[in-house]
Write a structure and sequence with these properties.
This protein is an alpha/beta fold and about 180 residues long. Helix content is about 15%, strand content about 30%. The strands form two sheets. It has a four-stranded mixed sheet with strand order 1-7-4-6, with helices on one face. A three-stranded mixed sheet has the order 2-3-5. A hairpin with a 2-residue loop joins β2 and β3.
Length: about 180
């Protein structure tokens, strides 16, 4: 299965929990739509919490996180990232951080937070955020990453703004009864 996630806005290195959660919420909307369409719409049963049946859900910090890439489903992700920013090549370090630390922020936002301190204080799911859709259970389930950076050639008043295109290839590394067709 292949799909593309998109983001335009600030992407800083060492972003605080509130900024990572805002990114998470942005991707939640796209992933919720993805789960509502074929082929994932045929696997809605994975969106029910269960200790014994196959489930994409984990509960943490008052949220029910639905992971598309998780150990229970035997899925991994390969990522191709196109990252555009308004500065000329080489200027990114002066406005928002270097590429590897921005990618760390992105990877943190693509997964469910592990500890309560990874969320802003008092954070709770909003309407239509149960489950809260995230791409990854854990970023160690990313098996391949390619990154291309280029200058964003549209006007921007914020040097920390980026446009991000994230091409995801979902693969199954362990096929089980009930998961056939999940990644097709």
């Amino acid at each position: 299965m292949r799909f593309i996630l998109h983001y335009r806005g600030k992407l800083k290195s060492a972003a605080p929990p509130a900024e990572k959660q805002a990114l998470r919420r942005h991707f939640h909307e796209q992933l919720r739509k993805l789960w509502s369409e074929a082929p994932l719409s045929a696997f809605q049963r994975f969106l029910a919490p269960s200790a014994t049946a196959l489930s994409a859900i984990t509960e943490a910090n008052g949220f029910q996180f639905a992971h598309l890439v998780c150990e229970r489903l035997g899925t991994v992700a390969e990522l191709e990232i196109l990252l555009l920013w308004p500065q000329a090549p080489g200027a990114i370090e002066s406005a928002g951080g270097d590429v590897d630390n921005r990618l760390k922020t992105l990877f943190d936002a693509l997964r469910a937070p592990r500890e309560a301190t990874a969320l802003p204080p008092g954070e709770a799911p909003g309407n239509d955020e149960t489950p809260f859709f995230v791409l990854l259970e854990d970023d160690r389930l990313i098996t391949r990453v390619t990154v291309e950076t280029a200058q964003l050639l549209e006007p921007s008043t914020d040097p920390a703004e980026v446009e991000l295109w994230l091409r995801v290839r979902l693969r199954q590394v362990r096929v089980m009864m009930g998961t056939l067709g999940l990644t097709s």
